[in-house]
Amino acid sequence: MKAILYYCCALVIGLQAANAQQKTQELFNYFSQPQPISWAVSLPNASSLPIKWQERKVTSQPREFRSFVGYYQDHFVGVITLSKEYATGEIFYQGNSYLLETSEKGVVSIKKDQSSKACGVQNSSEKQSLTRRQYYEGNEDKNDPPIEKPEIYNSLYPDALIHTDGVFRHYRLALPVDYSIYNSKYFNRDVNKVKAFWYATIAFINELYRNDVGVDFTLVDDEALIFTTTENQLFGRGSRANDVVNDGTITLNKHYDPKKYDLAVILTDYREKYNGMAAVYSAYEQHNKANAAARPIKPSTIAHEIGHMFGADHTFSNGGNYTSKTEIGSGQSIMSYGHEYPRDFFSLISLETIRRFLGNSMAYYADEARTQVAGKRVEGTGSNLVYGVKSNNQPPVLDRSHLKKEYVIPKDTYFQFYLTGRDAENDTITYIAHQADRRFHSTNSNARFMTYKGKTNGNIRFETTWFEKERNTFMPIAATSPLNYTPGTFTFWLAAADHNRADRNHVVKYDVEEVKVKIAEGKPFQIQNFDNGSWEQNRTYKGGQLLTLHWQVDENIFGKDSKVRILLSDDSGKTYKYILKETADNNGTCDVILPNINIGTTHGHFGKQRGQGVIKIEVIDGLAFALSCTKPYHVGGFMIDKNKNAPTPLTLVASSLPAQYITVACANAIPTAAKIETEGGCGRVTQAIAQEETNKKCDNYYILKRTYSFRDECNTIVSFEQFITVKDDKAPAFVGFLPKDVIIEEGATLPEAKTLTAKDNCAGNLQVTPLVSKENNKVVYLWKATDSCGNSIVHTQTILINPKPQISTPTVTTPTVSTPTVTTPTVSTPTVTTPTVSSPTQGIIIYNGVSTTDPANYFRIENTDTDQPISVVIFDEMGLKVYENNNYGKTEVFRGMANMGTIIGGRKALAGTYFYIITYYKNGQLESRKGYLYVR
């Protein structure tokens, strides 16, 4: 268990006043209207932000307080808690965090948070109870070793990169306010201000953790957690932060019943100027569950520290130690210090770390009364069990049919991923592409690309990102410039995640694929000599005008068969609605006809009007793309003036196009043909759909190429190709009770060779009769279920027949009597031989029921040769060896404790069904037995 302490500094806390102010009473009344509520927030030195606010019910929150989360263009951008006297919260937009504050006169102000986020890190070596985490950094420039599969306890999908046990957990979160914070500028001895901060924090972290992690928090709303005097304070003002965290749980439990909370972050004024500090993995242990501290600056600070408590490390490349270094600069996700970014999501790297333990190695209470323990946990760890609800939703499936394990692009070139997927319950899917070059052990970071929050549109582009820093002042994020895309090899995790806000106990699940992106020396993939006009005035083209495009192609990287697609944006490159050319050779030149539409301008840098037309050329089945304008707000794109006298060229409506590459498991799951829409064209437009099966191996394993063609009366043809991969690689699964191995006596009736049922994902139920084989004293029934594509599953039942004891027949010699004579009769004494009877040999007896609590019930083997050793090997259901003893019974016996194969060292308790193989001597002969044993 690692327990590094993390600190988030706030060395300089400077706040910038907002332009607009509002009375809390007015704001509270305004938010009493029906939802959703639109409140245009006036941000300092920026335009008003029209945010849609949705109320979130915080458990135990009194009626005089109301909490809301804010969304702008479907992105989570803020949280506020209101009463008639107070307003508090946090808004994050375009790389900045803004804090809501209330003056003594009840006026709400919105101020830009300019606190420093630089961090220090200190090991907890002073406390032996906290294991020190060793991360020695070296100068060798290489990634950490690949992530190894953990020992599986509860994970439903052992091969998944981000694990889940399907349990949504509910934590009771305490936020104790120490006297040093209660009597400070943060709360000014006002209990209602404390509660407003509590409610806003709960609303924020639930929006984040429910969406990304699969847990939520119920506030421990108890004024006993507000320490209002120096006599009952937890820590004195100016205590060392390290002492606060090391002694947090012990100290809090002396003042508050530990049975009333599951997790706590102590709000206290420690000596160092850090925002917060926490012990890693402390959320999983009862004796560590309050080993965290923070200042109540903003809700995102608390969310960050709780992330450490669940096991997440830092992710930034610059600004501190003990970090995976997977994010550029000071980072972008919640586990970074990226004050330039919202930090309203977890990176895939953080989620892998959290869910490796939370989603695999933690038990839980299946009832709210917390009496029924469910699931397994690693012995000696995971003592902090909470109430959880098991959900049955299936994980999404990321379409891998068009993904490659490695991509090669030239340097200084934009690139993108097109991700698609499906979900069995039709839950909302978000798509994610994060760089994943972990560098704990290297001083050098390999992070080169932005880490973006997941989105429902699977087109994730790595290009120069622009934002309006102030009114009419547009700035690029420097790290997104392709000039930083220098040669190297980079690891990316591509993922699909499912979400269902309507289901309170929905556990988000992830399907993740790892790919490599190799940036090579070569000619950048760029559009050349495109005329966007001048700085003073961007150029206007005519609708229907023919353009000849030229772009640079490195033939050493892109092969002769390489193809491109050409698209058009009318909103400065945010989206690309128009397809100018569905497929063209990637040879550096192509003629296109502009659609007969109007494309206008937007306000750009220094308030100048800039054309919004941008052409995009993208490599099909590759990552590279190029733009006709890379500075849409500085240089500007172009405009199009619609020709009212010319027919609009026939084009496909991009929003109506189906996913170009999809994968289904069965032929009966192939989607019906899409209803593709067209725009423009001469007269009536006719449609034709052609289908072609290729690479067919069986009825449920092939690629279906579906071509949609559209023709107008001017004989203009546009088409769209869709590739549907039918890939049944899943074997049937037996359902119902499966016969187990048994041992019977010779002469007893053999168990019936039953017909079993197997369920196939494509064919449905299959009836399977067994093959029977006999050998010596053993009979084996073998059931094999095979689908039409050859996927099969096998079940066997082995019946061992113990022979009856052999008893030899007694030998009796008939007495010999001489024939008597008349004279002197002589009779010889009859001789009778005593019958010889062999004692029956006692058979081996195996007691295969084991109890971890009853010492009398251990794995016992009787009637072997007492002067010879016994060897015992025990395997789990995965075939992994959990116990081995070559001198069984002499040194120890198996009482349900493994002696090998643990993930944390030491011995661990087992439970469930296991398989044994024993080797022993009987009557001087070496023999072996195998079978099942049961541990409970």
From TrEMBL:
Keyword Signal attributed: yes
Annotated stretches, region: Disordered: 809-835
GO MF annotations in UniProt: metallopeptidase activity
Keywords recorded for this protein, A-Z: Signal
Keyword presence, Signal: yes
Gene3D superfamilies: Collagenase (Catalytic Domain)
One Pfam assignment: Reprolysin_5
Signal sequence, renumbered to the chain: 1-20
InterPro entries registered for this protein in UniProt: MetalloPept_cat_dom_sf
Protein name: CHU domain-containing protein
Organism: Capnocytophaga leadbetteri
